[in-house]
């Protein structure tokens, strides 16, 4: 697709001449899409015309999201699995190509927190965050190289999900912050190495979005990885009894929700972002400005 063709495509989308969606005819893989932001992304991508590959460690949730998308008259398949498994990346990529014949977009969204103060962080806590947020995305992208590194003029992109913890650090998250900073470096390298093949690579760094990672830890949300239960959420114990506004430093005065922030990910994959690569988009409600 020439630059003129891309411009005409964008103009068509903006003028409403492409009712089938911004991603019509394209194929998108979204990890961690059984719930939360990943689920919202899967649903939005499908509504914008993409054939979506839903994948999550929770088999039942992964299958349900795909089933709901198909029930709505859209297209999706489920390839559930644990991103830490040695054969996961290859199975995911080859399963996608077998089902849809190609890959246009990869959204590396799967992840979780394993918090502790730095001096109390164990080797396992440290290594697991790097494995989940750095090694797993790297393996998925590497497995897709033979399909993406082609000068075919297609709209192709990789979006890796980061966090403001990775950009600014965060108390109790030395492991998570390091991993989320690392994914930014990986993304910029992909942008430089694969740009010649028309592949754009960007990072979306979320601030406070209402998910199980930001809700009260006392609610008991947890994930089981390698036989270990990892508690999720933010401790809310306050010995002083004083009420604290958690959104005081967010200009919009609230947290984001999964459906609205999914739009930022879809935007980075769409033709509207055809000349954006190597960028980190902060989606924070203005926090940190």
From TrEMBL:
Superkingdom of origin organism: Eukaryota
UniProt entry keywords in alphabetical sequence: NADP, Oxidoreductase
User: Which residues belong to the signal peptide in this entry?
Assistant: none
Listed InterPro entries: NAD(P)-bd_dom_sf, Sc_DH/Rdtase_CS, SDR_fam
One annotated GO molecular function:
quinone binding
Q: Does the keyword Cell cycle apply?
A: no
UniProt cross-references to Gene3D superfamilies, sorted A to Z: NAD(P)-binding Rossmann-like Domain
| Pfam families, per the entry | adh_short, adh_short_C2
Q: Where are the transmembrane segments?
A: none
What's one GO BP annotation on this UniProt entry? Answer: fatty acid biosynthetic process
Q: Which family does it belong to?
A: Belongs to the short-chain dehydrogenases/reductases (SDR) family.
Q: What is this protein called?
A: 3-oxoacyl-[acyl-carrier-protein] reductase
Source species, please? Absidia glauca (Pin mould)
């Amino acid at each position: 697709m020439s630059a003129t063709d891309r411009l005409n495509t964008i103009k068509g989308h903006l003028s409403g001449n492409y009712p089938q969606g911004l991603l019509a005819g394209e194929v998108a893989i979204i990890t961690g899409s059984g719930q939360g932001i990943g689920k919202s992304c899967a649903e939005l991508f499908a509504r914008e015309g993409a054939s979506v590959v839903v994948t999550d460690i929770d088999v039942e949730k992964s299958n349900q999201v795909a089933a709901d998308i198909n029930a709505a008259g859209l297209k999706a398949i489920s390839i559930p699995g644990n991103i830490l498994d040695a054969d996961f990346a290859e199975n995911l990529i080859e399963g996608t190509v077998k089902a849809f014949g190609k890959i246009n977009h990869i959204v590396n969204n799967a992840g979780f927190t394993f918090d502790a103060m730095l001096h109390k962080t164990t080797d396992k806590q440290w290594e697991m965050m790097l494995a989940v947020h750095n090694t797993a995305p790297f393996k998925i992208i590497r497995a897709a190289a033979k399909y993406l590194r082609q000068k075919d003029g297609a709209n192709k992109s990789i979006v890796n999900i980061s966090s403001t913890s990775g950009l600014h650090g965060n108390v109790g998250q030395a492991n998570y912050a390091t991993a989320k900073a690392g994914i930014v470096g990986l993304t910029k390298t992909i942008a430089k190495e694969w740009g010649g093949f028309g592949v754009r690579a960007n990072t979306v760094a979320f601030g406070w979005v209402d998910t199980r990672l930001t809700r009260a830890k006392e609610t008991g949300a947890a994930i089981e990885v390698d036989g270990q239960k990892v508690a999720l959420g933010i401790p809310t114990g306050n010995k002083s009894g004083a009420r604290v506004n958690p959104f005081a430093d967010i200009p919009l005065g609230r947290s984001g929700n999964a459906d609205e922030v999914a739009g930022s990910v879809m935007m980075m994959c769409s033709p509207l972002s055809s000349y954006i690569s190597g960028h980190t988009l902060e989606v924070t409600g203005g926090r940190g400005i």
